Amino acid sequence: MHHLSIAVIVFACVFGSALLGLCLRSLLPEHHLSDESIGVIKLTIGLIATMAALVLGLLISSAKSSFDTANAAVVRDATEIILLDRALAQYGPETQEIRALLKQSVVRGIQKASSGDSDQLASLRSPDELRRGETIQRRLAALSPHSEAQRQLQARAIQIAGEGLAMRELALLQAVGSTPMPLLITLVLWLCIIFGSFGLFTPPNTTVATTFFLGAVSTSIAIFLILEMNTPLGGTIAVSLAPLREALTMLGQ
Questions:
Q1: SS3 of 177-243
Q2: 121-131 as b/e, with b when 16 or more CB fall inside 10 Å?
Q3: Which whole number is the average pLDDT over 123-132?
Q4: Which residues contact 190 (CB under 8 A, 6 or more apart)?
Q5: Distance CA 15, CA 135 (A)
Q6: Percent of the chain at pLDDT above 90?
Q7: Which of 6-15, 90-99, 200-209 is the most confident on average?
Q8: How many domains does the chain have?
Q9: Nearest of 29, 153, 148 to residue 83 by alpha carbon
């Protein structure tokens, strides 16, 4: 809802600027809208539009990269969970308790990630969750292998658990959201200037107002998508947890 509110504010600012431009057209003296004046205004607005397009493209690219990184992290985590569980299964019945802890950790993580609650999502990065992951590592290190095969499986399980915990924390930190608000505010300001200038150039009519409305809707949707993709674990647009749920069904078998 927070991102939707920002998108609505952006729409109001951009569309309001366009309407303000239409009103100013009728108030300005005629010589302010001469061909020479309009030519200078168009050159200036062209420069601002180019900068706005570059910033908008940069934000979209950054947001898409964050979303793809989080999506890849979910798939990788699911794979490592399965590999860890199978290594423990091959080790022997001594690992049943560790496998149960692993399954509980996965269930808890899926429940929090799919809740959509910001507090629940924040708790995934809490020290308590990190300590739970470290508990599994300590249990793995405390195993007493009785054969070379078990020693190899123990070493492999410790390696998988360590890499999985490190990558999980990295993915959670990347999924916090990284849209620079000053850059976003600057972009909205530029869009308002651009749409306001459009209103200055055009006599008011229904078709023009409808075009401005659609343009403002499009820009606000773009801002909404940027904000949503920069927080891929919560919101309307979120990464799929299907790989983790599929991995959960395979644990303990």
A1: CCCCHHHHHHHHHHHHHHHHHHHHHCCCCHHHHHHHHHHHHHHHHHHHHHHHHCCCCCCCCCCCCHH
A2: beebeeeebee
A3: 69
A4: 48, 49, 51, 52, 55
A5: 55
A6: 19
A7: 6-15
A8: 1
A9: 153
For 28-126, where are the alpha helices, taking DSSP H only?
A: 35-91, 96-113, 118-123
**DSSP category for residue 1:** -
Q: What is the DSSP letter of 145?
A: -
User: Could you give the 3-state DSSP secondary structure of residue 142?
Assistant: coil
Q: What is the largest CA-CA distance in the chain?
A: 94
Nearest to 154 by CA among 77, 96, 80, 91: 91
- pLDDT over 90 at 50, yes or no: yes
Residue-range definition of the domain harbouring residue 197: 2-25+33-250
* pTM given for the model: 0.77
CB 25 within 8 A of CB 196: no
